[in-house]
Amino acid sequence: MENNGHIQSGKYAADISSIKDAKLRIESFIHKTPIMSSEYLNSVSGRKLFFKCECFQKGGAFKFRGASNAIFSLGNDQAVKGVVTHSSGNHAAAVSLAAKLRGIPAYIVIPKNAPDCKVENVRRYGGKIFWSEATMQSRESVSTKVMEDTGAILIHPFNDGRIISGQGTISLELLEQIPQIDTIIVPISGGGLISGVALAAKAIKPSIRILAAEPRGANDAAQSKAAGRIITLPETNTIADGLRAFLGDLTWPIVRDLVDEVIVVEDKEIVQAMKMCYEILKVAVEPSGAIGLAAVLSHSFQQNPAWKDCSNIAIIVSGGNVDLGILWESYNK
Fold this sequence. Notes:
Its cofactor is pyridoxal 5'-phosphate; Mn(2+); Mg(2+); Ca(2+). By secondary structure, the protein is α/β, with parallel strands linked by helices. The protein has two domains: 219 residues, Rossmann fold, CATH 3.40.50.1100; 92 residues, Rossmann fold, CATH 3.40.50. The protein contains 15 helices and ten strands. β3, α5 and β4 form a beta-alpha-beta unit. α8 crosses α9. The longest helix has 17 residues.
């Protein structure tokens, strides 16, 4: 990236033109999600907070944007045999729904430890489920076998330019809805969401700050930023089941260049933020979706002089597919 904030076209897997193309391709299928705010949360945080509620997106999460863009950009000859993906949750449901809308089969590889509510979403949208072990190696080998058996096309959860472009449509909406935004806080996992959000937002408004929010038990992005290369962890341990993936070779360069900082929070802060979303915003938010609020309220953000002039902050509430059984258990601990 050049120092003036201008993003060179062709340098990354997506850019502002591919994101604008995605918007045209998917806008008849997706919801334009609302912005919510709370005077109480503004006073607690000392900023104006604007919650971009992707929990109200079709499928209950932002993932439907990328999945729709990927699936509707396939040629008919490619699409006819269907699509395959591996995902523990929201991407699986999103691919199932987008494939259903296109009228093609969706083969979904799901690890056995996925939350029940997310598996039910896949069934609801007609995805055909194949089970794998919880490891990425198992997920990928089962996916490869399904592709060989069916001829289906792989739709990767995040490491795909079409997915990144679809997720970037969030920024196009957000900056139309609240043009005065100076900072966007985004959950980070594989990096598809934050890559799209950062590419679009910085192309439209180069001065905008993009901050990632990440759980301590899966803090590979923070470690990667510090090391200047992709770091993967031997294991992850966090209530935020949607934030356990590692950066890919397409998302990492964008995160490296365009994400200003990664804010790491504890699981107990995430649960507290979920509770606030329920009680104050009256919105059901999954742990991964509440992490942005946890980050803005965290000591490391509040006490960092670098962010003292972040006054109009958008928080991407990435999803609302909460496994209520596990949630009540975590509250009672």
